Amino acid sequence: MFWPMLAVALGFLGLVVLGVCAVQVFVAARRLGAQVTDATRRINRAAEELERAAESAARSAGTR
């Protein structure tokens, strides 16, 4: 009776460990998603600023 109870206990502990790991992966994935969203916004903002600067530089070069 000892061995089956030990097997059940170890199986339960294994599931607990897998559950903890799954929660950590979920939290890390959410953080990564937030960082990707933030980086995308920054890149878009920088691209818009670069586009405005290029237009301004083209106007300046065309007037001379």
Termini separation: 94 Å
- Mean pLDDT over the residues: 94
The helix content, as a percent range, equals: over 70%
Q: Estimate the global geometry from the Cα principal axes.
A: rod-shaped
Q: Give the SSE string.
A: H
Characterize the biggest β-sheet: none
| Rg | 28 Å
Number of helical elements = 1
Estimate the strand proportion: under 5%
The poorly predicted ranges are none
Structural class: mainly alpha
Topology, number of strands: 0
Protein name: DUF948 domain-containing protein
Keywords: Coiled coil
Please characterize this protein's 3D structure.
Helix content is 97%, strand content 0%. It is mainly α and 64 residues long. The model has no long low-confidence stretch (mean pLDDT 94).
Helices and strands in order, then pairings?
Elements: H1 2-63
